[in-house]
Amino acid sequence: MTTTLAPATPGVPGVPATTRVRGTRAPLRDVATMSRREARRSLRSIDGLITAFALPALIMTVFVVIFGGAISGGTGGDYIDYVVPGVLVMCLGMNSATAAMSVSQDMTTGTIDRFKTLPIFSSSALWGHTVASVVRNLASAAVVLLVAVAYGFRPDAGLGGWLGFVAFAVLAVLTFTWISVTLGLVLSVEASQSVNMIFLFVPYLSSGFVPVETMPDWLHGFAEHQPFTPIIESVRGLLMGAADAGTIVTACAWLVGFLAASIVAGSVLYRRRTAR
Hints:
By secondary structure, this protein is an all-alpha fold. Helices cover about 75% and strands about 5% of the residues. The protein has a two-stranded antiparallel sheet. Helix 2 runs antiparallel to helix 4, helix 6 packs across helix 7 and helix 7 packs parallel to helix 12.
């Protein structure tokens, strides 16, 4: 009997070329499949669509139309130009937090157990949540900006500023989503619904909605040095054409640090939970 072997990969004796192709392409294909799954689930969820698109527009309306007249005196200009970056970052965080509940549902309903029986990249489910969150949040940010422009927001960013804003927004959503994914691995479905409170409440204690100087003295230290302040100030600078390199570096350091820690912690937790 004659056995035909697959051609070896050049430079790697004994390794079939087909194996190497699968080794490099399969994880990307698995992540794409999981991303489409999560995107379809988002589109079928009325609550999720409201949270992603209607709620940010309503929050923008509240701050600009209802609160704007009373607060504008302390910001040194049009309040809408000041508040839009804060609303954007808060909504990006709140939308990313929905990944916590989705991951918790996957872990507790047997979905992950079914995925374990398939020959797929082990963390593709987590990355599927992340990729879908990035796409959903960029679409949500576009809606918020359109509503803001309708209310009178006039960004001064050039092409470089807009490209920088998009890149910064992607980094922020990746970080917020991985934090939420990691929390979703350890929280129940009910408890995971409260993750969005982190992104709803903490931005209020930053420069997102009022200048830090207008806050009580005992809040200045926290408001100035918590991560949301440089993140929001970076978005404000990029959109208004007045980006500060030092602020952006500080914000990116916060985001990259949280992202790396969340990916490592989430991956370890996921392997431990799926090994049972």
